[in-house]
Design a protein that fits this description.
Strand order of the largest sheet: 2-1-3-4
Largest sheet: 4 strands, mixed
CATH superfamily of the largest domain: Glutaredoxin
Radius of gyration: 18 Å
Helix content: 40-55%
CATH class of the largest domain: Alpha Beta
CATH architecture of the largest domain: 3-Layer(aba) Sandwich
Structural class: alpha+beta
Shape: elongated
Distance between the termini: 31 Å
CATH topology of the largest domain: Glutaredoxin
Length: about 160
């Protein structure tokens, strides 16, 4: 909670600017996450109060939309495509490799905060399967060796990511 208090001025500025806008909840949540990197717990109470909502209503929206985070993000995000084309070209084996290499499930985050895994169901690179996105950069025709190198680069904070 003490670290969350550092985000209070940001939250207050966003609320002052957006609270009277019709349908303000989503724009406020997006703005808080853009500024803080996630939605701190303190933001839920502040947003609920400013918009005359219950905290449960705000938390309901947070849990419904998968792109909102309630914990600080990992330094790197790897999104492995799990659609049919990538599956037929080895994505499931890559997912198993990631689970083994990192000891995480498909929605996990490494203990050191270096890497978060997220499945995605189409990156639009079907002709270049299997594909993944690492920090917004597309990597196509990914092999187990290349995946191992990408993950190692993220964990070592090498500019490979």
């Amino acid at each position: 909670m003490p670290d969350e208090l550092n985000h209070l001025p940001l939250i207050e500025r966003i609320l002052a600017r957006e609270k009277d806008t019709p349908g303000a909840l989503l724009p406020i949540l997006h703005a808080v996450q853009a500024g803080a990197g996630y939605i701190p717990g303190i933001a839920v109470a502040e947003i609920a109060h400013a918009l005359n909502l219950s905290q449960a209503e705000v938390r309901g929206v947070l849990s419904f939309y998968h792109d909102f985070r309630t914990t600080p993000p990992a330094r790197h995000t790897l999104r492995l495509c799990r659609a049919e084309s990538c599956q037929s070209r080895g994505a499931e084996a890559l997912a198993a490799q990631l689970r083994e290499q990192l000891g995480l499930d498909d929605h996990g985050r490494s203990e050191d905060g270096a890497l978060a895994l997220r499945p995605v169901y189409c990156l639009g690179a079907c002709a270049c399967s299997p594909a993944l996105e690492l920090d917004g950069q597309l990597h196509a025709r990914v092999t187990p060796e290349r995946l191992r190198a990408l993950v190692a680069g993220c964990r070592e904070e090498v500019k490979a990511c």
